Amino acid sequence: MGSPVKLYQQEMHNNLGFFATWLPVSILNLGDYGVLENGRFRKAGTLKELGIAHSEESEGAPQDMSYSASAQRRAVASAGASTAVPIAKAELSIRFDQQGGYVFEALGMRHVEIADRMALADRILRVYEEGGWRKEWLVVDALYKAASATIIVSEDSSSEIVFSASGQIPLGSLPLADPKIGLSVYSSSGKIVHWVAKSDLSPLYSCLKVDSSWFGRGTPTMAPVRGMGEGQPLTRLGIKELLDS
User: Fold this and answer.
1) Sign of the CA dihedral 94, 95, 100, 101?
2) Where are the domains of the chain?
3) pLDDT tens, 215-226?
């Protein structure tokens, strides 16, 4: 069995096809380049610092996301709560029954990506010819940015975290990610790592690398190989490469 963090990263990749940023509060931006190390993206610099210009585009409208595994929630309603309105007050408990159990909630998730990857490959290969790019470097080409997110991962096979709120906790929505609810950790048992209602996170990302066969070909040109078919110089990293790093 992998580590709890790797189990979380595997599950999130299975759900969304993106790498889960670890630590979730790490700052990532489009055009960051570096390497994968111990399940993390280690930044070496930015494309801008190398003089490589790139544009970005957004895809779709902002959306809310909620994923969890091996997590049981329990809200305790106050005595005066109306049965007609499904609200709970003061406390919300989350119990995990295996390592790597997690809760991921995010509000206002936006997908952004580098717009023209073929032009990006062209520029990277030119910088390589000038001695400014290393073959092992990867580039962050897409991100999910969250207006606010809560991420909880259990490191024990049995653990529990209890949140208290400054007001009422709506049920059936995404209360954990909403900073207006004012959640705070009331108690916990077992080993749990958590980030509660943190703003402006980039909790999911993807990386591209230049296929090694493209290095050393002389001055590159992308004209004959437009598109994503055979001859594509950029390849996307899979989850195994992250987990084995």
Assistant:
1) negative
2) 4-77+86-224
3) 877 555 554 444
